[in-house]
Structures are given as structure tokens and as C-alpha cells.
Give the backbone structure.
Amino acid sequence: MKGDQEIPLVQSNYALRGAEIPAGDYTLTMDFHPVSYYAGMKVVWIGNIIMLLLIAGSLIYHKRKKLFPEKFGGIKRTRKNQAKNRNNMKKVLIITYYWPPAGGPGVQRMLKFARYLPEFGWEPVILTVENGEYPARDETLLSEVPGNIRVYRTRSFEPFSLYKNFSGTKKIRPYR
């Protein structure tokens, strides 16, 4: 064990390896350089570079498509063009119990869907209940419903009214 002499490793149990080193002052260096690790690192770096190039290309493409839609076979989206293409829009039926004046996060989700779907070529048609027994109400959400959205309200059986009768609750609390 003089200088940079290598010593054999022995199996000490199923997971660990050991080395027989005589008594004295030594510096033990254990190096592990598997070929598979370095080959895998090269593949990971190449994959990362390709992914970054694809993301950058996609961002550039979509930015140019948004700035110059006529070059990409589309028309610029304006309110005038949106109203003109309203007849060509695909319709989507949204069936939801929670719709303004109901309050809470479920209402927000459906309201925002309905509000922004026309920008992507979809005309939402809402089917909801007429007089819902909501656990919370938020009357201010009624002003956020766009005027061009058709909302159909229908009668329904209200399980929450049974709960109110059993619990003795008479009023619905306003949402805050």
C-alpha cells in the first residue's frame, strides 16, 4: 500500500463493500465512474437543450401568430370580427347548479369559462336552476355575466331546502 496502490474490495454484506487496510496513516480515496452514468448525463443534457429550443420556438411562433394573424391564415380578433363570426362559433352547453347569484368558488369557475370561451370560438349556453338554495349568495356576480350569453333557468328539486328544514336555518347568509 505504497503510493497510489489499488486494493481489492471485499463484500461485507449484500449492500456494502469493504477494504482490508493495515494499521497506519493512509488516505483512502474511493472513485466510482460508471460509463452508464456519464452516457445518461449526455442524453439528459441533449434532451434539455432540445426541450428549451422547442419551448423558445413555440413562444416565438405564438407571439408572431398573435401579432401578425393574417400571415398565419387567420384574421385579427376584434370585437367587430367576433360579432361577425358569432354565427360561425361552435356552441357548448354548460350545465351548472352554481351560477350567479350563487356565491363561492364553483360559481367563479363557471362564470369565467362562460366569459372567456367566445374568445376561443365557443358560444356558451348556460343551463342552471331557477331559484337555487345556495349556501352563499353574491349578488355582485350578476353584473359580471356578459349580456350576450344565453342563460336558461329551470325548476329543480332542492336537497338543500331539506337540510334547511331539518337544521332550522331560515335565511341564506351573504357571501363575503
